[in-house]
Amino acid sequence: MRSTFYFALIVTAAVVLAACNATDNVAKVEKKSAGPETIYPDGARRVTADELQAMLKNGEAIVVDVRNQASYDIGHIPGAKLIPSGEILNHVNELPRDKTIVTYCS
Q: 61 pLDDT exceeds 90?
């Protein structure tokens, strides 16, 4: 079960990182109205700011900033944990298993 969790986490991280690097495709997708039934090419679920705020308020999610330290220092979501994209695999054990992990890169 532990290896399944790690595999799922690695796949999720890879999808998120690929989405961060695919700015042209993501920009076109994000302009569309994103309803709950919207399926994106990268398979990653999107959450709105309101959804994230509710999830954080209910203790259902954590936020991971995958940018570099300099970008994080300029500004970040309050309470976000900095784990640069190239270091995610080194910090897998620090992520909770019982919460939704919301990542962002811009």
A: yes
